[in-house]
Amino acid sequence: GVLYLMEHEEEYVFTLPSAYARSILTIPWVELGGKVNINCARTGYSATVTFHTKPFYGGKVHRVTAEVKHNPTNTIVCKAQGEWNGVLEFTYSNGETKVIDTNKLPVIRKKIRPIAKQGPLESRHLWQHVTSSLK
User: Fold this and answer.
1) By CB atoms within 10 Å of each CB, which of 8, 22, 77, 83 scores lowest?
2) What pTM, to 2 d.p., does this model score?
3) Is residue 131 domain-resident?
4) Closest CA to 52 of 61, 44, 43
C-alpha cells in the first residue's frame, strides 16, 4: 500500500500482515501474523512490525513487536512491544519509555465524503451496491 501525508509531503510504502482464520470448527476468529515493512524515502525512516501468531499451547494473542530505524545513520530510534489492540510499550534510543493503552484512546469518527462526491474507484463508491445488499 501507499499512504500520502500531503501536509508533510511524505509518501509511505508498506506491506500488510497475513490474516489467519482460527477455530473454524468452534468460535471463529481472525489472527494477524507476519512482518510488515514501512518505508519513507523522503525522511529516511523505515519500520518493521512483526505480528506474532499465538502458539498452539499457551501464549497470548495479538502480540506485536516493532523497530523504527533511521536508514542514513543505521540507527534504531524506537522499539515497541505489546498487543496491537491493548497495551503497547515504546522504548526510544535515549532510554525514554512510553506506554499507550489503545483501549483508552478516544474514538474519532471517520470523515467521509458523500458517495456522490467520491471518485469511481474509491472503495465506498465502488462497493456501495455490495454494502447495501449486505445491510
Assistant:
1) 8
2) 0.79
3) no
4) 61
Per-residue exposure over 49-68, b if at least 16 CB sit within 10 Å of its own CB, e if not: bebbbeeeeeeeeebbebeb
User: 23 and 30 in contact (C-beta within 8 Å)?
Assistant: no
On whether residue 80 sits in a domain, the answer given is yes
How many distinct structural domains can be found in the chain? 1
Integer CA distances (angstroms), 121 to 48, 82, 114, 130, in order: 30, 36, 14, 14
Q: Which amino acid is present at 64? A: V
Of 51, 76, 70, 49, the closest CA to residue 61 belongs to: 51
State residue 104 phi and psi, 5-degree precision: -100, 0
Residue 53 lies in a domain: yes
Q: What CATH number does residue 89 fall under?
A: 2.40.160.120
